[in-house]
Amino acid sequence: AHNAPALAWSPTLAARAALWADQCAFRHTGGVLSAQRYGENIVAGTGEFPITAAVASFVADEVQYDPAHPSYLLFTQVVWKSTTQLGCAVSSCDGIFDRALGPAALYVCLYDPVGNVIGQA
């Protein structure tokens, strides 16, 4: 068990996540949303790809996590103990994957304070 506290929903983070999701850029923001740095999880899927599937993809990394040899994954940002807030957004985007697959649902989740910081828990 990770014993991380529950995260609080942040409308501010959700609005910033929407700014990025609406650009249909399937990559990390590189800090362009704010002078403040946020943790990020970004995932896209086609067909039936609801938020539950997006979150499931974030936490699926848990099986790869080895505390004896820690690495920083989508999962570790979700359960980072010093992170207290979360905001997510989704946009329907053409061109992320092969056009024959149809539009993709692009989910962007931002976390504050940022997690996955070497030397912190």
UniProtKB/TrEMBL annotation:
Q: Name one Pfam family in it.
A: CAP
SCP domain residues: 1-119
Q: Which domain of life is it from?
A: Eukaryota
State the SUPFAM superfamilies in the record.
PR-1-like
Q: Which InterPro entries match?
A: CAP_dom (IPR014044), CAP_sf (IPR035940), CRISP-related (IPR001283)
| UniProt-recorded name of the protein | SCP domain-containing protein
